[in-house]
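Journal club side-thread
Mid-discussion, someone asked how the predicted structure for our own chain would compare to the paper's figures. Pasting it here so we can look after the session.
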Amino acid sequence: MARQQLVENAPKEFRWGVMPPLKAQTQIYGASTQTLSVPKKSKQAKEAMQFIEFMLSSKNTARLAMNDWMIPARKSCFAMPEFQDTLGGWEITCSAVSTLSAGSWTGAPGYVEWKSRVANPVLQELFAGRLSVDEAAQRIEHESNIVLSRYKKRGEVW
């Protein structure tokens, strides 16, 4: 997302780039996954599955990744010319794939609820200019504590 904002909004003379991951004890870092699924009670499960197969073709996976500025979900996309582009930082971004793993935080009790009910809505308001950074920080702290306290009460600790 930051790369996209730089490419689309920075002045033309602004010089920027993507740095490869820093060398450390490990190069492994977290990734948040996205999934597609068909509800068990779907009345059009066959058609839904056909759509998922269409969506996940190499061509459409590449289009989705380019438009969302995310690493493509299919390895077959990495060789495509658009993912070798130096202007958008794609060549470095895609080269980091071997170091990705599921982020340990995704297993934290309440993470999924927190992300969908607190982080995403507050950040959307912030980016839309409806909240200041201080207001967003206060809301995130307050609302996060509410969500996470429910999980603590249940005895779910990370």
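Post-session note: Residues 133-153 form the longest helix (21 residues).
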